[in-house]
Amino acid sequence: MSTPATATAAAVSAVAAELQTVAANWNGYGVAGMEPGALYAHMAEALAAKLLIGPAAPQLVYRAGYRSLPLGWYATADAARRCCESILSDQHPADVALLFDWSGEVLEHGERCALLAEIDGVQERTGYHVTAIEVRAEFDEDDADDPVAVRCRPGSGL
């Protein structure tokens, strides 16, 4: 599986290769009759295609949820936590003291942390949680070994 470091290294290699192509083909007047601005635009498009359309490393998204209901998907765990905290805050009058605490950090695919809240001095579980979910660019035959993917198959009850 690709890591962020290997994905970054691949992106840097792609940039370096494109810059070498520009340097090798630059003659001061453009390439194949292209003006310099058109050459740069062409190379920028080629670079974007390599970086954005090429194989992508799996990304984590963070699902905010209440019990079994998804509330939203976010690029950061902090944004997902704020979603849960905001909804819980909206359920209580402004004069109710709310203190939030999370059961842990969400770092890896499938991990979950739960929102605990002290409401008027009493700590309780809220049912709100944040789960890290890996989003892949392509289907992977090895998904059968992933307990999260297995739970989400038809007939699994989800």
Order of helices and strands: HHEEHEEEH
Total strand segments: 5
Helix content: 25-40%
Main beta sheet: strand number and arrangement?
Answer: 5 strands, antiparallel
Strand ordering within the main sheet: 2-1-5-4-3
Q: Tell me the β content.
A: 25-35%
Helix count equals 4
Global outline: elongated
Low-confidence stretches: none
Radius of gyration: 24 Å
Q: What structural class should be given to the helix and strand makeup?
A: alpha+beta
Distance between the termini: 27 Å
Integer average pLDDT: 74
Write a brief caption for the model.
The protein has helices at residues 4-25, 36-53, 77-90, 147-151, and strands spanning 59-66, 69-74, 98-102, 112-119, 122-135.
